[in-house]
Design brief:
alpha+beta; Tetrahydropterin Synthase, Chain A; 3 domains; three-stranded antiparallel beta sheet; rod-shaped
């Protein structure tokens, strides 16, 4: 019986010790109540409380925490949009643990209500484009408003962020299509400018080519005329005939040379014109008449000058 009592006493003592000892983790504070009334706040480490009389009412972490809130609201241009708001906060030291634990039953739910109230007062007055352009302003307004309210309850706000803005899928698709069409238009304008430059350069090259070709033909004709002039003069002096007779001989020679070249190619498509000596003579007379007309015209223009 004595042994049983000893064992029972030891067991009861161990139970009381187990009920009396408790541990608080780093960056955490525990609130102790005695008979239901607040007694004290204890920090990290091993602690002892009076069994039955004392109890750990709760634990409050002073580490930075993050609350993510998704808010659906409507913009001024009647577009429904989802905003993902992230709020980073912490309990502002040991002396604020009591306020953080006892003054708010559910701090995160209360913060969500404040954020909802702030966003739904701000965003409906803005267009969708303005929401995207001024998300930093929205976050700043949430930060200022929430900081003032949280400070009353022992919390301190680190930062408020607008992490994402998600308009309705149909609106997002329409915005993407507008962006795509704008980029296609810019691409088409650049392509048109490139084609314009190519056409201009080709035209300039063609004009330059024709200019050079004309200069070459002009120089060729000058050389031919000079050669003919020398040939006619030499033939006139050697044969004792006038220039008209020499031209007739040259034309006849070139004419029959042409017939020889045509005859060498059996598959020629050349159309033969009248080639009797009389026709050649008429051609000679036409050439001489043209030359004389040109000389007369030039003399007349010289007299006018």
């Amino acid at each position: 019986m004595n042994v049983f009592g000893i064992v029972l006493g030891i067991a009861f003592g161990l139970l009381l010790l187990a009920l009396a000892i408790f541990v608080v983790r780093q960056q955490t504070f525990a609130l102790i109540e005695r008979w239901g009334r607040f007694n004290r706040v204890v920090g990290p480490g091993l602690h002892i409380k009076v069994p039955i009389m004392d109890r750990v009412a709760g634990r409050v972490s002073i580490r930075v925490q993050e609350l993510n809130v998704s808010i659906k609201t409507k913009t001024n241009d009647n577009v429904f949009v989802d905003l993902l708001i992230a709020v980073q906060y912490f309990v502002d030291g040991e002396d604020k643990v009591w306020d953080a634990f006892y003054r708010l039953t559910n701090p995160q739910a209360q913060m969500e209500s404040w954020i909802f109230d702030n966003v739904r007062a701000k965003v409906p007055g803005m267009t969708l484009d303005s929401v995207f352009e001024n998300k930093e302003e929205i976050a700043k307004e949430i930060e200022v408003s929430l900081s003032a309210r949280l400070s009353e309850y022992g919390y301190k706000l680190v930062r408020a962020l607008v992490n994402d803005i998600q308009p309705d899928k149909g609106v997002a698709d329409a915005m993407n299509e507008i962006n795509r069409q704008q980029r296609l238009r810019v691409a088409a304008e650049h392509e048109g400018e490139a084609k314009k430059i190519i056409v201009i350069k080709e035209a300039e090259a063609d004009a330059r080519s024709k200019e050079l070709s004309g200069e070459g033909i002009a120089k060729q004709r000058i050389a031919i005329v000079a050669g003919l002039r020398e040939s006619v003069k030499d033939a006139s002096d050697a044969l004792g005939v006038n220039a008209e007779g020499v031209m007739t001989l040259v034309l006849m020679t070139q004419y029959y040379d042409m017939l020889t070249d045509v005859g060498k190619n059996s598959r020629t498509n050349t159309i033969m014109l009248p080639h009797t000596p009389g026709a050649v003579g008429e051609l000679r007379e036409q050439i001489i008449a043209s030359i004389m007309t040109g000389k007369a015209t030039g003399a007349a223009e010289d007299r006018k000058v």
